[in-house]
Protein: Iron(III) transport system ATP-binding protein
Amino acid sequence: MPKINLSGVEKNYGGNSANAVADLDLEIGDGEFMCLLGPSGCGKTTTLRMIAGLEHLTAGEIRVGQRVVDSVVDGVFVPPEKREMGLVFQSYALWPHLTIERNTDFGLRLRKMPKAEREQRVDQVMKTLGIEKYRDRYPSQLSGGQQQRVALARMLAVNPEVLLLDEPLSNLDAALRLEMRAELKRLHREFKTTIVFVTHDQWEAMTLATTIAVMSEGELQQVGTPNDIYERPANRFVAQFVGNPPINIVELGDGKSEVSQLANAYLGARFAELRDAGSIGIRPEAIRLADAERGVADGAVAGQAEVTGILPTGGSWIIELTAGGEKLFMTTHQSPEVEVGEAVTWWAKSKALHVFDKAGQRMEV
Ligand code: ATP
Structure:
């Protein structure tokens, strides 16, 4: 049974505004680490706030386990404090006048847990998060990352069944973000909490989530494992939003460009039924250069191009190819043996091609 179930959920903030979230059906399984991923303004935070009970729905229903916590039709609304969920937002406000220990202890005191039990729990959580050495300090005496840990400890101490996190790592520098991601993953394994995590950072979602829900303009685009989302994007939006450098998109419509002619010929020859295809996507890492030893793989799509740029990215390279005025980007982990200005043959395995119809929806090939 899903832990959290959103069915036909809609949120409109009133006035003449478009729906911030529209007709959203989403199941979040027990113990799942679900990332809500999408660009700024797509409705991620609104969705999280509705799950938390900080926003009322304008249509639909949310259930947690068997219990309806918000239903427009039935007029049910369970307030946030009765939903047994922990929330950590980007600004993880700690109590400035309380020590780290007292901050961590805060929720347990509210719940009137007996002292001995409370102390044991606080010790355990502070140890897990590596903050026991700061127990007597005040928040202002800690770095941003340490404060972030305290905010998480405060949430975990009350052992919520569901943890709701809204870009909780966004204030941290790159190294600390990575460290905290690893820590969050470990905590998820250890505590088996159901986590809903909002981020606009596809890399963050790919590294953390067991399931990703991609949103755009208030609408759910795809739900799947990080691998599904990357390998089998449901539409052009998902294909382009996930992946760095982004996927190459070749428009098939005009059939004028060299790459599109190649792709058209390829599709025409092998997939007559795909004549409606609007575009093709090729991930940069799927493109290879042919050389004397390793030619073009059997059944691959291949074409001629000129190398028009080589961008080192530290341990890997992005190579810009120009084929008949059209740009294709490829990545490689091997030091490139080509130079800018050189004519090359590129190729990609046919199974690496993503085909989208004119409406941008994935077509199976
Ligand atoms: P971000 O990553 O920038 O926080 P988001 O994906 O979390 O974006 P939301 O904050 O959920 O997006 O916003 C979705 C839409 O709803 C946006 O168009 C936003 O302007 C609008 N919106 C959000 N909160 C309110 C509010 N309190 N009143 C009116 N409109 C709002």
